[in-house]
Amino acid sequence: LKNILIIGAGKSAVFLIEYLLKEAQINNWRVTLADANLSAAEARIKDNSKGKAIQFDVANIDLLNQLIQQQDLVVSMLPAHMHGDVAKACVAYGKHMVTASYVSDTMKSLHEAAKNKGLILLNECGLDPGIDHASAMKIIHEIKAKGGEISSFKSYCGGLVSPESNTNPWGYKFSWNPRNVVLAGQNTAIFLDHKKVQHIPQNRIFTQIEPIKIEGLGHFDGYANRDSLSYIDIYGLQNVNTMLRGTLRQSGYCKAWNALLALGLADDSFIIKNAKQFTYTTLALSFLSATANDLKAAWKELVGKYWDDEVENKLAFLGFFSDEPILLEQGTPAQLLQNLLERKWQLMPEDKDMIVMQHIFEYSLDNKKYRLFSSLEEHGQDQVYTAMAKTVGLPAAIVAKLILTNQLKTSGVVIPTIKEIYNPLLKELESFDVVFKESVETI
Amino acid sequence: LKNILIIGAGKSAVFLIEYLLKEAQINNWRVTLADANLSAAEARIKDNSKGKAIQFDVANIDLLNQLIQQQDLVVSMLPAHMHGDVAKACVAYGKHMVTASYVSDTMKSLHEAAKNKGLILLNECGLDPGIDHASAMKIIHEIKAKGGEISSFKSYCGGLVSPESNTNPWGYKFSWNPRNVVLAGQNTAIFLDHKKVQHIPQNRIFTQIEPIKIEGLGHFDGYANRDSLSYIDIYGLQNVNTMLRGTLRQSGYCKAWNALLALGLADDSFIIKNAKQFTYTTLALSFLSATANDLKAAWKELVGKYWDDEVENKLAFLGFFSDEPILLEQGTPAQLLQNLLERKWQLMPEDKDMIVMQHIFEYSLDNKKYRLFSSLEEHGQDQVYTAMAKTVGLPAAIVAKLILTNQLKTSGVVIPTIKEIYNPLLKELESFDVVFKESVETI
Question: pLDDT tens for residues A155-180?
Answer without folding.
Answer: 999 999 999 999 999 999 999 889 99
